[in-house]
Amino acid sequence: MFGAGGGTSSYSEAEDTNLIILWGSNARETHPIFFHHLLRGVRNGAMLIAVDPRRTSSAEWADVWLGIDVGSDIALANAMAREIIHHGLADKEFIARATTGYDEFERCVEQYTLERAEAETGVPAAAIQEVALAYARADRGMICWTLGITEHHNAVDNVVALINLALLTGKVGRDGCGLNPLRGQNNVQGGGDMGAIPARLPGFQDLEQPEIHEKFARAWGGAQFPHTKGWHLSEMFEAMERGELRSVYIVGENPARSEADQTRAVHLLSGLDHLVVQDIFLTQTAELAHVVLPAAAGWAESEGTVTNSERRVQRVRRALEPPAGARDDVDIICDLARRLGCDWGHPTAEQVWDECRTLSPMHAGMKYSRLDELGGIQWPCPDESHPGTQFLHARLWKDPVEGPRAPFHAVEHDPPVDRLTEEFPIRLTTGRRLDSFNTGVQTGGYTSPLRKGEAVLISAEDGKRLGIADGERVRASSRRGSVEVDVRYDDSLRPGLAFMTLHFPDQVSTNVLTIDATDPKSGTAEFKASAIRLDKIPVTAAT
Amino acid sequence: MDIRTTGGPATAEEMAAVDELLGEPEPAHHHLAYGGRAARGQRHLLLPVLHAIQDRAGWVSRGALEYACRRLSIPPAEAYGVVSFYARFALEPRGEVTVRTCDDIVCMLAGARVDHGSPCLGLCDRAPATLSERAGIAPGWVVTPARVPVHAVGPKLLRRVGVVDPESLDSYRDHGGVAAVLRAREMGGEAVIRQVTESRLLGRGGAAFPTGRKWESVARAPARPHYLVCNADESEPGTFKDRVLMEHDPFALVEGMAIAAFATGCEKGYIYIRDEYPLARRRVEQAIAQSRSAGLLDIEIEVRRGAGAYICGEETALFNSIEGKRGEPRNKPPFPVDIGLFGMPTLVNNVETLFNVLDIVNGEFGDTRIFCVSGHVERPGVYEVPLGTPLRSVLDMAGAGNIQAVLLGGAAGSFLTPAQLDVPLSFEGTRAIEATMGSGAVIVFDETADMKKVLLRIARFFRDESCGQCVPCRVGTKRQEEILERMFQARNSDSHGDVMLLGDIAQAMRDASICGLGQTAANAIASGLTQLKVLNG
């Protein structure tokens, strides 16, 4: 938020806050550990509000579920903001002292009446007002979100709309308040923090700032590296399409199954001059590679650190020797460097980390021994006497505000790119389930009593209307392709809304259906909103 | 709460029974749902819902249970834990009519011989007794022997029994009712509490705690709301005085509760009446409704129906039962006056205690006590005498002869020999001979009684009724029964080792059970073994 890419709060704050909005997040199934903290908060009296097109198992725990239409988040957030302003519940003092851009924001949200929001979202106006006022009136309140916000063509705008709500009510930078994207893996946060994003160097430092670039170049022995930001994932695929990107080195990612519009993704990966895949399994992407580098598992087979959604850096320790032939990622990368003519030696994970501490101010105080002692440390931790930071942006409450003020950004509702038409009348949204993870690379190897295989979930009403029985195999088609898939009736869905996961790409290639309309700023595709059609499969006469 | 159900659907009948109680479910909205705390807050309706299902269908099917779970937002496994805790609920299909035949101590003395008999039905004055229930749209019950005139002798608390029309507020008024609550309102709450304290009334539920102190504590508790709970889960074998009071003078109970609620600032009241007392339940419900519409009762009082669990007479188990949970006692402290029902300050009083309050407020307090005399006597019934009256006078009133032993205080009490019958019926008097008045049960055994069978019945009672929460009680009550069986079957006289073992078990249960059930489960048996000639040789 406002320059730092991490959740602002600690998990423990979810336990004693007054109100939690889960917005586009089925944390009950996709972030079960965080959900335990959240449930403790609920038991301690916090009100829980779920905003989600589906009535998910998380939503069933909520005091209020707002079942918005897919992609109408900004309309909802802006209308909530308008209600808050009109009821005199905006934190005017905080806004005046710690933020910028309020006037334009107010002009923008003024257009989002309750009536308009009801028309865009499907949620009754009275409920929108109720939730807006509850959030504004709560002493402490947090907003948590996941891919329901970010897997849209206007992902960044969606996030901004939520940030606006927190700024409007002064619900950031205080204990029990905050804005928290929940991370899908134990180290999504750490990957970004270490510079695995196009514009940043380790410590979330801006690559394009000359003094930063120079600091790193000096530390790395005068190394030459670009002065401008690189491509994010979607841009890489566009570059492949243009023929500009011919060689790719993929570490621990399975884009042949996880990318939207999978047919195109596989086609592009197959056409590369050189593809190297480094992974712990022979994934579908690895099968397309010219060279596969078998890696040790980041969990249990190697040393290092991970960083979770509350910015806590924690040690990971080796408990097992990796299988013969599989090597630590650091080892592989250093060996590769050596073959390319740079001798980086044979550093241990701790030596790599200590180098990072000298370059990244927010990690500077995190010696291994301190990580052990304190059970992990939350960044920023600028020196070895610093205890770590429970929540971010306390600076906004200092008088005068320390550092830059937090900006409002006016954002407008913009519906999903893949329009619903008579030909494609059903809104397909995708997500995950408790028992499986992403493309199944890490979960396909074990069984679960909950797992029923892939299916397209629809409401019983739709099933009856289309003459499709529960369990019947149908053809699901979008503007991009079609797959055969079993139908399952599900109570969490309303007519016109369908749900699939990408857990079983070998059974059903869900991403053949999804659209790769991508947010230009985040590079994330609109997995959450495709338009599809379900057709009965004609019975062929026996011959 | 996300609830996963795996059973089949409920029948239309079962769903109708649940919906009649809870109201029709909200039609599903495609874009909005309310739930969460509001839905989970209905948990306390679980037992009423289970009763509705069982009354309609005769048993609780899995489909019906899961429908109830969805309506009340309770995980099915949790609800199963509750439904299987209470003896009343059947989880297997049953016929339309269920007959419960009492084979507890008094009915056994009267000749009841059945295989899976019921624990005491509180009908000891007409033993042997049965309670039949018919499920259906209009569920009903029948008691046998059919109603016989109650034998009640008493100057104060029992004075209206058999005299007043228990279904008429006017009749109650004509017989001196209603005066106390009006007087209490004039005096103000503090003065009422002072009067109760000065009367030195001790609670009649068995623990004999000073009632005034309890009232003061609740009145002063800062947390809100305050709850008033009347404990009418009279389940001690041989005890039926609360049933007589509720069946024959229900307006007095409601008036007592109105005064208690007024004095201690309770916003809501419950009367928890044991399942086996359908008539009492009906009469009390009528009395509440009439008192409410006559402006004599300021708060809402809900009658809650037990479900066949002796342990729910323990006050904290009773709270859990009202809250829709298994009737397992809680640790004390915290005490109910601070953290009771729904975690709020709660005043719990027994039926007889609340009856005394009327006389206190009217300035007519007599400090009498009601005893339930049954077994080998000519006139089984309820006898009200001043505290300190010798037991022998009560026995004479009821017509007892050839006495072999008396069980005073029910299954949790102790046996007295013919030599001890002059004991004064007071807290100090009984304590002096290591006995207790307990619930006021007086069961008389003449020379014909087989005391071994009586002891075995008591042992079986505790084994059945232990809630199972504390290991010493759960295992100890079972071992106690096994050892008794072994001792009574042995031909040889050497039972010294077993007596020692019973002593050890009794000690462990006393020391390490959190509630009175485990702490007293060995008392009657220990006193029986020392006082009665039941062991060979």
Strand-pairing-aware structural class of chain B: alpha/beta
Shape summary of chain A? globular
The number of strands of chain B is 14
Largest sheet features of chain B: 6 strands, mixed
What is the total tally of β strands of chain A?
21
Strand percentage of chain B, roughly? 5-15%
What order do the strands of the largest sheet of chain B run in, or round the barrel if closed?
5-11-10-14-12-13
Outline the low-pLDDT stretches of chain B: none
Describe the structure.
- The complex is a heterodimer of chains A (543) and B (537).
- Chain A is of the alpha/beta class.
- In chain A, helix 7 crosses helix 8 (125-137).
- Chain A contains 20 helices and 21 strands.
- In chain A, strands 17-19-18-21-16-20 form a 6-stranded mixed beta sheet. Chain A has a 5-stranded parallel beta sheet with strand order 3-2-1-5-6.
- Chain A is 31% helix and 17% strand.
- Chain B is of the alpha/beta class and 537 residues long.
- In chain B, the strands form 3 sheets. Chain B has a 6-stranded mixed beta sheet with strand order 5-11-10-14-12-13, with helices on both faces. A 4-stranded parallel beta sheet of chain B has the order 8-7-6-9, with helices on both faces. Chain B has a 3-stranded antiparallel beta sheet with strand order 2-3-4, with no helix packed on it.
- In chain B, strand 10 and strand 11 (381-386) form a beta hairpin.
- In chain B, helix 1 packs antiparallel against helix 3 (46-57), helix 9 crosses helix 12 (250-264) and helix 11 crosses helix 13 (278-293).
- Chain B is globular, with a radius of gyration of 23 Å.
Structure characteristics:
heterodimer; A: 543 residues; alpha/beta; six-stranded mixed β-sheet; five-stranded parallel β-sheet; 21 strands; globular; B: 537 residues; four-stranded parallel β-sheet; 22 helices
Secondary structure: elements and pairs:
The complex is a heterodimer of chains A (543) and B (537).
Chain A: E1 19-23, H1 27-30, H2 32-43, E2 47-51, H3 57-61, E3 64-66, H4 73-86, H5 92-98, E4 99-100, H6 102-109, H7 114-121, H8 125-137, E5 141-145, H9 147-150, H10 155-168, E6 178-181, H11 188-193, E7 200-201, E8 205-206, H12 210-219, H13 233-242, E9 247-251, H14 255-258, H15 262-270, E10 274-279, H16 284-287, E11 291-294, E12 304-307, E13 312-316, H17 329-339, H18 349-359, H19 368-374, E14 377-378, E15 406-407, E16 426-431, E17 456-458, H20 460-466, E18 473-477, E19 482-489, E20 497-501, E21 530-536
Parallel strand pairs in A: 1-2, 1-5, 2-3, 4-15, 5-6, 9-10, 10-11, 16-20, 17-19
Antiparallel strand pairs in A: 7-8, 12-13, 13-14, 16-21, 18-19, 18-21
Helix pairs in contact in A: 4-7, 4-8, 4-10, 7-8
Chain B: H1 12-22, E1 32-34, H2 36-40, H3 46-57, H4 62-72, H5 76-83, E2 97-101, H6 105-109, E3 130-134, E4 140-144, E5 152-153, H7 169-174, H8 179-187, H9 189-199, H10 211-220, E6 226-232, H11 241-248, H12 250-264, E7 266-273, H13 278-293, E8 300-305, H14 315-322, E9 346-350, H15 351-361, E10 368-375, E11 381-386, H16 391-398, E12 403-408, E13 414-416, H17 427-432, E14 441-446, H18 451-465, H19 471-489, H20 496-512, H21 516-520, H22 523-531
Parallel strand pairs in B: 5-11, 6-7, 6-9, 7-8, 10-14
Antiparallel strand pairs in B: 2-3, 3-4, 10-11, 12-13, 12-14
Helix pairs in contact in B: 1-3, 1-4, 3-4, 8-12, 9-10, 9-12, 11-12, 11-13, 12-13, 12-15, 18-19, 19-20
